[in-house]
Structure formats: structure tokens, C-alpha cells
Amino acid sequence: MQIYISSIHTDVGKTYLSARICKELGFDYFKLIQAGTPKDSDIIAQFSPKTKIFKEGIFLQTPVSPHKARTLEGLNYKAFDIALPQSDKLIIELAGGLFSPIDDEKTMIDFMQKFKRPTILVAKDYLGSINHTILSIETLKQKDIPILALVLKSEDNFSKDFIQKYTQFPIIEFDDKVCKKLSKIIKNLL
């Protein structure tokens, strides 16, 4: 099984969740596109040293949006030319949010739609996150991309309760038991 780790925004915990899943559930790791250092794969290696880590699809030295780094660095690649590694248990960590550009034309969600795999959507509670989370869920549904789970890091239950009630979508809290809960979902698909 290959699973995308997608998110509603940048810096919401995709890499941390990826490291936990790789370490606790024995998945390999692949970063679709890396902009800047330290590399997310370095963080995975630090927290999960036994994880097989594939070289990122695209590495950009400039820590900005990939489409901008691509231009600044004079690179010429197309989003759909990025090859996914062969692995039976692979976490594919995306960059930024669903509509973060990969090149001058395509975004993360375009890649997800072209190369269909289920996703775990990661969200973090901040002002505006309810809107971003619901929009992300609705967009994934519209694009027919299966959502295995919504993992939410929240300090209170107000956002969680509203999102769950509004979307009728179960939420897994980003806590010490997150992988145990995800394991049950993933095992049902294997």
C-alpha cells in the first residue's frame, strides 16, 4: 500500500506523522519534492533509523514554493515526470498544502489525482484552519481521492467538534496513540 501524507497548509506536522508511521508501522519513505534543508528525509532517518528512505523526487536548494525555487535555480522538470518508487508499504510525503505548486502548471492535488493513492490529511488548529480543513476535505472528495483519515493537532475541541460535525468525517487526534488508530484503518485496506 502506498499512502500520500497531505495537509491543509505547510508546517502542520506531515514529516512528524510520516516518521511515526514509518517507525511504528514499518513503511518506507519518499518525499515527492523537497525545497531547502534540512531535508525531511534527514528528520525521518533521525527518528526512524531503520526506515528505507528513497531519494526525493525533486530536490530544490531554495526553501520557497517549489515553482519559485524551480525558476530561481533554472531547473526544468514537469510534475508528472516524477516517478514514485516501487514499494509495497510506502509513505509519500507531499510538500505544503494541496494546492502548493510543483511546477509552473501543476499542484500537489493534480499529482494525487493523476497517480491515485489514498491519503492521510494532516491538519493543525490555527485561526483559519477550520476553513482550510473543510476546503481540503471537500476538494479531495471532489477529486475522488480516498481519505483514510484526518489527523488533527488541536489544543481544544472547538475546531475538532465543528469540523467533525460539519463534514461527518471522523478525526484522529495527533497524540501518542495516532499510529495505533491509523494501524487499524490501514490493516482494513491490506
UniProtKB/TrEMBL annotation:
EC id: 6.3.3.3
One of the protein's GO biological processes: biotin biosynthetic process
Function in brief: Catalyzes a mechanistically unusual reaction, the ATP-dependent insertion of CO2 between the N7 and N8 nitrogen atoms of 7,8-diaminopelargonic acid (DAPA, also called 7,8-diammoniononanoate) to form a ureido ring.
Species whose genome carries this gene: Campylobacter estrildidarum
Keywords: ATP-binding, Biotin biosynthesis, Cytoplasm, Ligase, Magnesium, Metal-binding, Nucleotide-binding
Name of the top EC class for this enzyme: ligase
Family: Belongs to the dethiobiotin synthetase family.
Active site (record annotation): 31
The UniProt record lists the keyword Ligase: yes
Binding site for Mg(2+): 15, 40, 93
Protein name listed in UniProt: ATP-dependent dethiobiotin synthetase BioD
Top-rank taxon, per record: Bacteria
